[in-house]
Amino acid sequence: MLLLFAILAIAAWLRIRDCDVGYFSFHAARDLYRSQCLLNLRDIPLWGSEIQYGGRTFGPFVYVIYAIPLAIKCTTYSVALFIALYNLFTIFMTYIFTRRCLGAKAALFASAFYACFPLEISQIRFYWNPVFLPLTALLFFWGISLLAMKDKEWGVVLSVFSFFLGFNIHFSAFVLLPFLILAIFLKRARISPKVWLASAAIFVIFIIPPVIGSIKTDLQNVKDVVESPRAGKEKHSHYRFNPNASIVFSHHLRFTYREREERMGLVYLGFVREYLESVGRAVPRWIRLLEKIGWLQFILWMLGFGAALLRGFNFGKLDDALARIHDAPNRWVYRFLVLWQFIPWLLLSFFNLQQADTPSKHAAIAMRYFIIAYPATFITMGLGVAAIMDYFQKRRAFIPAALLCALIAILLVGQAAFGKYHIDLMRDSGKALPYNGFCPNQREMQKAANALIYDFKMNAEDFYTKVFSMGVYTWTRGEATLDWNITQNADAWKNPRLPANRYILLYEDKDKDLPFKPEQIIKSKKLYDVNLALIQISEDASPPPLDNAPLINFWIKHMPLLIPPWQR
Q: Is residue 255 exposed (0-12), middle (13-18) or buried (19+ Cβ within 10 Å)?
């Protein structure tokens, strides 16, 4: 228990410390608006968030999740803290699940790797719906395991609830559906009518809001999912078969292995130099040294994956030490562990989100979409450590066991140090790294908001009517960032849609009634640069490519703003 407490304490320190220096984007502000609407009962959302690739997430329950911290205190810091605590609870539940299924050794090492993983520490500072998916996936497989391993039929209810909750949060949760169908099909004879009824009730509860929303909008949301805009008047389905699926699948497999071999925990090490140089820093030598020990994590993962593969699918006769890693009654937990990591790679590779028509264009999906499989990755590494430790213990090879523990300790300390370095880098630079090197982080946006309110005496209502932020295309309608920090206005997401060739910044030159003049602010000698990017109305025949990074999508103009005296 002392080791678990130490692991959770380190995890809490890495997650709660400066949790508000993350990337607060337009889509996050939009979702918080709708959570406010729900809290105030001013507008009840019936569909989920818009998806970058067309349509919406299944239902509005993500707004219920965001409403929890907003009900306590209506600030983005409360949301960031809630996400950090949520992730901390996920680590604890990963320990509990792994201990019950694979034993104490695997559980401790799995939770330790999870706690110190810098990519995860970075991900949770991104106000992005999938940060909630690892826990829902873990609970989903917990329910499936209860059904498959112990014939506990109520595991179906837990899995059904977790699946629909995850699918409400983000579309990528659909990768869990094959597991649910398979488990129910194989164990259907063991499921009683009351469990079927409870599962059906959960389905009805989750599907009622989007059904009502579809009826009220003449099925427009359904049409958006099936057929979404590609270019001009041309219509094209984003959900058709990807002709490059096999290429993309091997690409992700190769990249994922390489990340585990060289980059695991280094937050996209390939981009480290790029975003360090963007804030005027060189890559520290200890980061390069940490890269050299990255092979250890890859080996541990391979050992765990091999153990799960052999034990779960009974490929050959196992060594006694490997076969007795735990006392599970059957092989289902190993099978789920293997497939939990394999199926998402496979299904998401077939998702044609980049409109690839020929093998010359890879329709690759970003690595962050695989966050749903994070717990399985760390559990697999914990299993690998448990396997080799049992091997050493059986042969009384205490010196090799001690050396392995020392190497793992160095790896974990190095990863925790890199996580701290990354947080400090975001805090000191004012940037939301690595997602958008040009974007101010949430803390800097709040400073700018305070400057506008307190130094320029800007009235919140006047700001909302005179100053606004807006995206382009249907999927970004009503998204806003800085104005949310100033107004927290629940109606702001209802802004009217604008033509796609208009790029909207936070003010208009034509508006002479603003309480401040941007040119005067720039010339002022009393100002401190808080890295705020304001966007001015403009048109251009060759705009930047559409992406989910708002301040790259639009023409940006960096403007220094005054930091209030108490924050200097």
A: middle
**Residue 319 DSSP code:** P
CB 418 within 8 A of CB 118: yes
| Angstrom distance (rounded) from CA 150 to CA 291 | 42
Pick the range with the lowest mean pLDDT from 346-360, 422-436, 525-539. 525-539
Helix runs in 52-75, H state only: 61-72
Instruction: Pick the closest to residue 106 from 395, 305, 318, 246 (CA basis).
Output: 305
If you ran DSSP here, which 8-state letter would residue 261 be given? I
| 270-279 confidence digits (pLDDT tens) | 445 555 665 6
250 φ, ψ (degrees, to nearest 5): -65, -35
Tell me how far apart the alpha carbons of residues 95 and 84 are, in angstroms, rounded to a whole number. 17
Task: Specify the residue for token string 């890859």.
Answer: 298
Backbone angles phi, psi at 282, to 5 degrees: -95, 160
Evaluate whether 155 touches 180 at the Cβ level (below 8 Å). no
Terminal-residue alpha carbon distance, the chain = 43
Q: With beta carbons less than 8 A apart as the criterion, state whether 111 and 4 touch.
A: yes
Which residues have a Cβ under 8 Å from the Cβ of 2 and sit 6 or more positions away? none
CB neighbours (10 Å) of residue 519? Answer: 10
> pTM here?
0.77
pLDDT higher than threshold 70 for residue 81: yes
**Closest by Cα among 294, 271, 284, 262 to 424:** 284
* Residues 324-366 pLDDT 10s: 444 445 678 888 888 888 887 777 666 545 444 444 444 455 5
Q: CB–CB of 263/270 below 8 Å? A: yes
**In this structure, is the dihedral angle defined by the CA atoms of residues 411, 417, 421 and 424, taken in order, positive or negative?**
positive
SS3 of residue 126 by DSSP: strand
For all residues of the chain together, what is the average pLDDT?
69
Beta bridge partners of 56: 50
Measured CA to CA, the distance from residue 204 to residue 134 in angstroms comes to 24
Contact 487, 461 (CB under 8 A): yes
Residue written as tokens 């999912």? 225
The token duo for 179 is 């597991």
The residue with tokens 């299904």 is 347
Strands (E) in 155-298, as ranges, are 228-231, 234-236
| Nearest Cα to Cα of residue 183 among 207, 151, 206 | 151
In this structure, of 118-122, 161-165, 349-353, 510-514, the range with the lowest mean pLDDT score is 510-514
Give the span between the Cα atoms of 124 and 138, in whole angstroms.
17
Per-residue pLDDT tens over the stretch 363-390: 455 566 778 888 998 999 999 999 899 8
Residues β-bridged to residue 234: 231
Nearest 5 degrees, angle CA 154-CA 158-CA 159? 110
Please give the Cα distance from 64 to 37 (Å, whole number).
Answer: 11
Residue-wise pLDDT for 256-265, tens only, equals 444 443 333 3
Query: Would you mind telling me the total number of residues written for the chain in this entry?
Result: 568
